[in-house]
Amino acid sequence: KQWYQRRVAVGVNIVKSLKVALGVLSIFMTSAAIAITPIISSFENFFVNGYKFADELKLFIGTQNKQEVLAVLEAYYGRMKGKNLSWETILKMYRGMFSHDVGYPDHTDTVTKLDFYGNDGVCLFKYFVDNNDPQRNFVWAILAVNFVCFLFISISYILIAIVSRESSKGLTNSQNNRQISDRNRKMSRRITIIITTDFCCWVPFIVICVLHSLEVLDATPWYGIFSMIILPINSVINPFLYDDFVTE
């Protein structure tokens, strides 16, 4: 009988481990899909904000967004319904404006794509968007997921603290076990620190993203600070906090 119970316990543990592994794999695959989607060429029209053309082509100076390029093309080709033209079509029309004779330098091939990960001089996820960004809904969806995850984690930790305190209250009262009381106090303090650090790193960032999107303020100069300092700090602190939390 004991042998059978041990086998059942081992089977249950294996099932639990597989569920955890499947959950981790699902999260990893979802994160990878979100990260890779903006650089897939099939979604270029959605995630590319503009192109920088060769300096020798005076009609296109600096980095041009789609509206600016279409304005030049319309002046050359005449009035057209170009609002929904793909970047591929636009680039073909752009190359058709210039000579490609043998013996002359062809500068039309010198183009640099301004894609989703290179909008603010920082090669990271583009969280700061405005009303004209084609990726606005995509970024808002990711911010919403981040906020929901923060709420879920915070509520889960609060419930852990409440259940732990209630379950040990009777034992503490009956046996006057100060060690259990101290352990629960430390765990509650650690949970508070975890929630506070997550809040301080993510919630202000999300609020600034919202204000920037609503054009209440221009937060572009702050993007480097948030993406290179504040958000990574949260990732650096968490392993130490979680290690102590699991130990307690």
Describe the structure.
With 248 residues, this protein is mainly alpha-helical. Helix content is 65%, strand content 4%. It contains seven helices and three strands. Strands 2-1-3 form a three-stranded antiparallel β-sheet. Helix 3 (66-77) crosses helix 4 (87-95), helix 5 runs antiparallel to helix 6 (178-213) and helix 6 (178-213) packs antiparallel against helix 7. The two termini are 34 Å apart. The mean pLDDT is 77.
Features:
single chain; 248 residues; mainly alpha; three-stranded antiparallel β-sheet; 65% helix
Poorly predicted runs are none
Oligomer: single chain
Largest sheet: 3 strands, antiparallel
Number of strands: 3
The number of helical runs is 7
Using only C-alpha atoms, the radius of gyration works out to 27 Å
End-to-end Cα distance, whole Å, is 34 Å
Which percent range describes the beta-strand content? under 5%
Bin the helical content: 55-70%
Structural class: mainly alpha
Q: Helices, strands, pairings?
A:
Layout: H1 2-36, H2 44-47, E1 50-53, E2 63-65, H3 66-77, H4 87-95, E3 111-114, H5 136-175, H6 178-213, H7 223-247
Antiparallel strand pairs: 1-2, 1-3
Helix pairs in contact: 3-4, 5-6, 6-7
